[in-house]
Amino acid sequence: MPAGSSSTARAVRGGQGKPLLSIRDFKVEYRTGAGSTVQAVRGVDLDLYPGESLALVGESGCGKTTFGLGLLRLLPRLGHASGKVIFNRSDGTEIDVLGLDGRDLRQFRWRDAAMVFQGAMNAFNPVLKIRAHMHDTMRAHGRASRQEIENRAAELLRLVRLEPERVLDCYPHELSGGMRQRVLIAMSLLLEPEVLILDEPTTALDILTQRSVVDVLHEVRERLGFSMIFISHDLSLAAELADRVATMYAGRIVETGGVRDLFYRPRHPYTLGLIKAVPPIVGDLPDLESIPGGPPSLAALPPGCTFNPRCKYATEECKETDPPLFPVTDQQGSGHEVACIHWKDVHLDRQVRSEDMGTAS
């Protein structure tokens, strides 16, 4: 089963046609010890198209990881996902993800969609060698001979720039952080999923190792053509890896659009604040602006727009209205949407270089 043999044909860019993953009114609630619930993800609507890379950005605690876990039904016991998540397989089959259970759910998780978790060491069984991880994963999801598994594992390890002859016989602790992360990427692709969700895949890695992982993701995605949801608080990495970006705040998507639209022409004050906090790589260092205050408690959200207590554009109307996403009217047809009634007043007042945001062509 050569890597990319069945996948290259689905490497479609640009968000054309039927979405691969259609998400509507997606919510995740956690039950608390007091018998109440906290909504960590609040009514998210998103589409992911074949071959597309979507970055989900925002501060820690905004619901990004919970969103990814909820899509794959990997929430802890007290979590519950609701809404509609439709996965449209390349063979035309339509799957209601939130309605799956048992064997169908297990098959979906690796064959249709897979996740690379934050903190690679925690994703491995420390007493098993990498070879055993590969074999167990393949055998749990289908019939394959030992030699077929060996060939597939070796092929994918080479694809992520690792030597299978060495790595397969290593325990997880014998590999560096960057090597473990690349092994996880290879493992997640064993069964050729059409969607790969990556949760902060470069966290805790030094800058050179981050560069290596990003290069690997570029190469593997170009070769295999899968769609990707990239969860990160690092805007430069998100800009480099994504075709489209969605900004999340307090469990809601507050802005979404093409990578250049969002990073060069942000229209939500929160997205603007995130960008203005990124220092330039070259040239003079401008006065960096931080976003005042901190994210609200999900158990006690402010009325109206949840960003209004931290927003310099906020008015009394913002305390009464929590606007939905709507199109940015001066960019018709761009897919740029924002949840802010003052979006026309929001402008980036300093030039952002492509090198700063990782979008150099």
Automatic annotation (TrEMBL):
Highest taxon in the source lineage: Bacteria
Single Gene Ontology BP annotation: peptide transport
MF term (GO), any: ATP binding
UniProt keyword ATP-binding, yes or no: yes
Tagged with keyword Transmembrane helix: no
Family: Belongs to the ABC transporter superfamily.
Name assigned to this protein: ABC transporter ATP-binding protein
Lineage: Bacteria, Bacillati, Actinomycetota, Actinomycetes, Propionibacteriales
